[in-house]
Protein 1
Amino acid sequence: DAGITQSPRHKVTETGTPVTLRCHQTENHRYMYWYRQDPGHGLRLIHYSYGVKDTDKGEVSDGYSVSRSKTEDFLLTLESATSSQTSVYFCAIGTVNTGELFFGEGSRLTVL
Amino acid sequence: AQSVSQHNHHVILSEAASLELGCNYSYGGTVNLFWYVQYPGQHLQLLLKYFSGDPLVKGIKGFEAEFIKSKFSFNLRKPSVQWSDTAEYFCAVNAQYNQGGKLIFGQGTELSVKP
């Protein structure tokens, strides 16, 4: 398995609170991604990073921000969590020339 | 914009039955195609991939997929399923123009195999 660690793996929080999910890789991949998985929607890209301090939006970026201060860490922040952000969040690393991704174990977030 | 469509949301089969899961994408250029599998409670794992060459690709655990460019399809097949194949299957596409290797996923097909 690719060296990708997500934390926390499970979190329950209340509406309006900030939440940060962490993705840590040991593979030295330049590209990192945050997806959310919801029934009936498959996986949808939230944000991705193509290098330290270089990030861009995906298809469902509203309400989320990201930061990448070093190659191995990619943080996803919900500034003020809403119930619609209850989901399973997957971090992935990838090879840009093929698009193949390797996924972390996922972080299950419940917003009450 | 690119999109990926998986026709079956939930498929139920008995062991030893044959499987075919449909996947169509909308993009007219060159693409890289993937099938990922997610076993219950686990993360996504690569099942197989197509970049170029022989349009019939073989993956792990006896799965194969056929790329038909004229139909914009990349259907997944297995001649004889096992109970252990129970999982959710995702088709994904990366257009080669696409910076960052972003994958666009289909909605997923849940496969339940009855023993």
Note: The interface with chain A takes residues 4, 6, 9, 32, 34, 36, 42-46, 49, 51, 90, 92, 94, 98-108 of chain B (CB under 8 Å).
Protein 2
Amino acid sequence: EAQVTQNPRYLITVTGKKLTVTCSQNMNHEYMSWYRQDPGLGLRQIYYSMNVEVTDKGDVPEGYKVSRKEKRNFPLILESPSPNQTSLYFCASSPRTRSYEQYFGPGTRLTVT
Amino acid sequence: SQQGEEDPQALSIQEGENATMNCSYKTSINNLQWYRQNSGRGLVHLILIRSNEREKHSGRLRVTLDTSKKSSSLLITASRAADTASYFCATDSNYQLIWGAGTKLIIKP
């Protein structure tokens, strides 16, 4: 089944404790991205990747890191999480660029206390 | 700043009625996409309409695009309880894909 998977689905952590949210797609898509969703603000892009070893900042990259060592994986790293990073996070992929249909993962609900 | 802005923010209708929601944007676009999100879940792509298209259909969905007014509408005909969800438009301009805050649609039985 073609899909985007994210882990974990739910995470409660404390300020400053490094964490990684994994994202994997099995559709051989070139383009992958991370979004955060906050009430009333819609989706805001954090980082995106056009292909392996190519990543770029989105609208709200501060406090986040990403890497794209393999085509299928695009982990999101929070080196020192803060409470303002409490949010619902989505990974998405598409065949080539943002101009194509985006396939979304199920989401990761992160709470930073 | 948000480019795509959906209107209304929330819409509640009876099952079987038609639901219309709108999306306005500010700059020129390559395409506009509509997505559905069931509560707290991942978004699901509905329709993509290109800037040179005026109307597109998919099942009970009809999307129109008016580039002169910089607006799009999504019509869901003969609504069902399963259509209860939030609907988002995303506008693709030269630099990025920008999302609106969404319209929350509730279908009452």
Note: The mean pLDDT of chain B is 91.
